[in-house]
Amino acid sequence: MDDPLDVIGVGDVDVDIFIRLPHRPGPDEKVVATEVRKCPGGMIGNFLVALASFGTRCGIIGVVGDDADGRLIRANLEQRRVCTHALRTHPHAATFTCVIMIDADGEKSLILLPTDAFWPDMEDVTPARLARARHLHTTADRPVIAAAALALAHELGLQTSLDLEVGKFADEPIDWSDLLTHTDILFTNRRSCRLLTGSDDVWRAVHLLRHKGPDCVAVTCGAAGAVLCDETGIISLPAKPAAAVDTTGAGDRFAAALLHARLQAWPSDRQLQFALLHASRAVEDLGGEAGLYLSSD
What we know:
- By secondary structure, the protein is of the alpha/beta class.
- It has a single domain, classed as UDP-N-acetylmuramoyl-L-alanine:D-glutamate ligase (3-Layer(aba) Sandwich).
- 30% of the residues lie in helices and 26% in strands.
- The chain is built from nine helices and 13 strands.
- A nine-stranded mixed β-sheet has the order 5-4-1-8-9-10-11-12-13, sandwiched between helices. Strands 3-2-6-7 form a four-stranded mixed β-sheet.
- α1 crosses α8 and α6 packs across α7.
- The longest helix is centred in the C-terminal third of the chain and has 14 residues.
- It is globular and about 50 Å long.
């Protein structure tokens, strides 16, 4: 029998190819890159690796291709102490890849290359796999599967969290209520918060989102910091100073740190401080694992 977990993550892992440039190219323009680097990534992959670095027991339900990139991802997760027993290898698909162009100011453009090894199927999300954990975390990249996973987790008595980025895919739903109904902790950013509620006032927006289902709503606001709204009230704190090189994975790091702190039942203000501290460390180098350490270090 598999060992129990604190958190099970459902969603994507990928290989990120970072291309550092003096500036991002315009139409028909050639720009000479100053650095190219390949790193394991993906929203769920980055989140779980960060969570494991804090000492939280976690595992993944996901899929990789039967190729060198898939083997790289699996080996990295295992080295980082993320359980991969439910990480399926797709025999006929390449591993999901993301190309990230970063200019001298740290601004980036992303090109996603989804494959059939992008997200797990609902058949991968079984009651037995969820029952190992006390908390499920997912994203909204495949809304139907995510909604079913969240509902099943609640049926089994798990707490849940959702990282929701609106406007990422052309075929996403207009109504997100199926996901929010079964979400206990919602992570989102300021733009998505506005699109979800129609309000430019982030304090008003988080209250509106709490009425849609989540007990806790955390909104990242870039250099302005973040807002946390839960049963104790609403808190807003500024971002920690950082020499930003690459913001890839900063939101995933924020979510992992905040969830770790909530699982430890820390006070809400300490939760937000911890999350902002680790989000700041995530931007100081290329890749979603920048500034991390192994839990045994």
